[in-house]
TrEMBL record:
The gene is hemL. GO terms for molecular function: glutamate-1-semialdehyde 2,1-aminomutase activity; pyridoxal phosphate binding; transaminase activity. This is Glutamate-1-semialdehyde 2,1-aminomutase. NCBIfam families: hemL, PRK00062.1. It is found in: Cytoplasm. GO terms for cellular component: cytoplasm. InterPro entries: 4pyrrol_synth_GluAld_NH2Trfase, Aminotrans_3, Aminotrans_3_PPA_site, PyrdxlP-dep_Trfase, PyrdxlP-dep_Trfase_major, PyrdxlP-dep_Trfase_small. It catalyses: (S)-4-amino-5-oxopentanoate = 5-aminolevulinate.
Length: 449
């Protein structure tokens, strides 16, 4: 099977796992836990085997069964330019020819850090450190916040996801603001004893917890627009209230912009909502599809990072030249072309089209969207936090997902994930998606009929 451009039909087909994908998944399950290298890829929440992906271009995926799909996962966010953007691929090839990794200083990482400090409001006048994933970024930022403040407690949002560091894998207990309990086997209770959880969109809950634990909380970490409970916009004023509370209590405010960075605006949610955290965590788009994360912010805080200061953090592949080349090329294109108005328009049209088709079919769906990230929650009523999201009809979502896949559209395979629009989603891709949705909602409507 060829992946040359002439192979691509650009006519989406039935994307359910065919014989090739099923054979690969069977083989994978023997040597890889669950057959996947990250759990959500196993399609447990929607049923069926996952299609295996051979290649990707623009808004399309090509499966190992030779089927083209319109892709709204976008490698979980990074593919904002569309897949395999030629300028990014060229930059990666050029860098690779000069050597894959040096474990030493490079000009590219300086240029990259300077660009980040120019584009991201929280980094202006501050400093940034490159790492290799979003998990590393949040874990390191919170170690730094603890080292800087000399305090140990962390506040996070119920349903917020910040990667898989032990102390962030926390399930909320009952009540408005609770002590965390381990959210995974293998996480000792002691490790999460200092992690407090609050509902999203309630500044009052944060205020209460900061008062209860006055002088002990190092950081409040929040996805400014959560994507990991599905997409949930912040209520007007919420982020500013967090800012004010953290300033008042001497707590480090950390925005986890691994998903929202360069997606909801060039300068991320900090720019979109005009609220500047003390530290910001980046990932996904910042690496242009390669493994890159970053954390940074206030200079006086970042000066505590080794070797300048006493908070240790390191990485053999941090600032990897090939990954930096991909990230740099991606951000340079975004800064040069300023495509956010176009992205907003495409995303708004798609979301409106999906909502209209759900309404026409009589399927209750709440469409949450911020910029080019969106989730349709299968429920009536608004979704402002994780409890609201959990009240969705997960069976209806799963059926809709399967129907869309059958019609050649690849959505995030969980109700509690966001889907992403890219600059490569043209009229043909959007039109196909909306026709598919018409059929998929009609099928789901039988549940309600
Ligand atoms: C908001 C957020 N933070 C952190 C992470 C962790 O990033 P990674 O998967 O690159 O470790 C993710 C995604 O996984 C994320 O969406
Ligand atoms: N929700 C996760 C990040 O955004 C999905 C990616 C993964 O965990 O594989």
């Amino acid at each position: 099977m060829s992946t040359t451009p002439e192979f691509w039909t650009q006519i989406p087909g039935d994307g359910r796992a065919g014989a090739n994908s099923r054979a690969l998944f069977n083989a994978a399950q023997f040597v890889i836990p669950g057959g996947v290298n990250s759990p959500v890829r196993a399609f447990k929440a929607v049923g069926g085997d996952p299609p295996f992906i051979r290649a990707a271009r623009g808004p399309y995926l090509l499966t190992e069964d030779g089927v083209t799909l319109v892709d709204y996962v976008g490698t979980w966010g990074p593919a904002i330019l569309g897949h395999a953007h030629p300028e990014v691929v060229d930059a990666v090839c050029r860098a690779a020819r000069d050597g894959l990794s040096f474990g030493a200083c490079t000009a590219g990482e300086v240029e990259f850090a300077e660009l980040l400090c120019r584009l991201v409001p929280a980094l202006k006048g501050g400093m940034v450190r490159l790492v290799s994933s979003g998990t590393e970024a949040t874990m390191s930022a919170l170690r730094l916040a603890r080292g800087f403040t000399g305090r140990s407690k962390i506040v996070k949002v119920d349903g917020g996801y910040h990667g898989h560091a032990d102390f962030l894998l926390v399930a909320a207990g009952s009540g408005a603001a609770t002590l965390g309990i381990p959210g995974s086997e293998g996480v000792p209770a002691a490790t999460v004893a200092d992690t407090l959880t609050v509902p999203f969109n309630s500044a009052a809950a944060v205020e209460q917890v900061l008062e209860q634990h006055r002088g002990q909380v190092a950081a409040v970490i929040v996805e400014p627009v959560p994507g990991n409970m599905g997409c949930v916009p912040p209520r007007p004023g919420y982020l500013q209230e967090l800012r004010d509370l953290c300033t008042r209590e001497g707590v480090v405010l950390v925005f986890d912009e691994v998903m929202t960075g360069f997606r909801v605006a060039l300068g991320g949610a900090g720019q979109r909502y005009g609220v500047i955290p003390d530290l910001v965590c980046l990932g996904k788009i910042v690496g242009g599809g390669m493994p890159v994360g970053a954390y940074g912010g206030r200079r006086d805080i970042m000066q505590h990072v080794a070797p300048l200061g006493p908070v240790y953090q390191a990485g053999t592949l941090s600032g990897n030249p090939v990954a930096v080349a991909a990230g740099l090329a991606t951000l340079q294109i975004l800064a040069r072309d300023d495509p956010y108005a176009a992205l907003e328009a495409t995303s708004a049209a798609l979301a409106a089209g999906l909502s209209a088709r759900a309404a026409k079919a009589g399927v209750p769906v709440v469409m949450n969207r911020v910029g080019a990230m969106f989730t349709g929650f299968f429920r009536a009523g608004e979704v402002h936090d994780y409890d609201d999201a959990k009240a969705s009809d997960l069976g209806a979502f799963a059926e809709f997902h399967r129907e869309m896949l059958t019609c050649g559209v690849y959505l995030a395979p969980s109700q509690f994930e966001a889907s992403f629009v890219s600059l490569a989603h043209d009229a043909a891709a959007i039109d196909h998606t909306l026709s598919a949705a018409e059929a998929a909602f009609a099928a789901v409507a039988r549940r309600y009929g």
